[in-house]
Model the fold of this input.
Amino acid sequence: IIFIIVNYFTKYIFYILYIKSISVENFIIIFIKYIYIYIYIRVLSNIISNKDNIFINIF
Done:
């Protein structure tokens, strides 16, 4: 599931780059947002798969 989402975002970014021809600054902003979304998805998936372990580590 994660790989599908990442693949979708990369295709979306390249679509924006080539079709819309946006500037470098906008691309950097989008890329940073993409990195944040990717980290958020990874953390969410880790929480979902390792609920008990994370709670043990926190408390």
